[in-house]
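So, can you check this one?
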Amino acid sequence: MSTMHLPRLKKDNSLSQAVYQAISKEIARGKLRAGDKITEIGISQAMGISRAPVREALKRLAQEHLITLTPRSGCHVADMAPDEIEEIYDIRVKLECMALEKALGRFKVEKIQLFKEKFEELHNVATRRQAEKEIDLDAQLHDMIAQVSGLKNVQRMLKSLWARTQLIRLREAERGYLPVDACKEHVSLLIAILKSDKRAAVKLLREHIEHTKKTVLEHLNNPG
């Protein structure tokens, strides 16, 4: 198992979630790379916890295709090939635009306004340190749209897709990605939602996801 900087944990009711987040972060930072082997016992010893929550976290990571669990071969960090990532974004476009169309008219104005203000703030002070905040806020917004849509199957499918693309975007933050364009795109989208302009909102969401896909693929193909 590659050298990782996993936190020591105290016993609580969210150990599995903490393990999941810790391993995800190591993958996002490139400390764990595609093909690297990880073990239940290695993680449990590093974090000072039993193997049960580690096992649950690894199952979740496998379900989201972030790691592979192979009988007699062990657990390895999954590869994220450009063609697969492109496919994921293409699916996201269709599912998220469907969710947005369903959700329009159901949003709480105060919630949308708050998102708009937060993205404007990040846009005005965009720095490398703000990148992770933008990525997290982006995830919250996309998740909210899916939740408000009420489309349960769409929500479940998107949750798995988001897990992989989120890690790639976090790698961008590690390399100095600046969230200026993404913040601007989100602000425009939120303004359209506030105006209940379905055509504009769906168009802006589609363009935002397509733009993100293009940026991610460029970084994957040119990792330097």
In short: The longest strand covers residues 67-70. DSSP finds nine helices and three strands in the chain. The chain has a mean pLDDT of 86. Residues 1 and 38 are 5 Å apart (CA to CA).
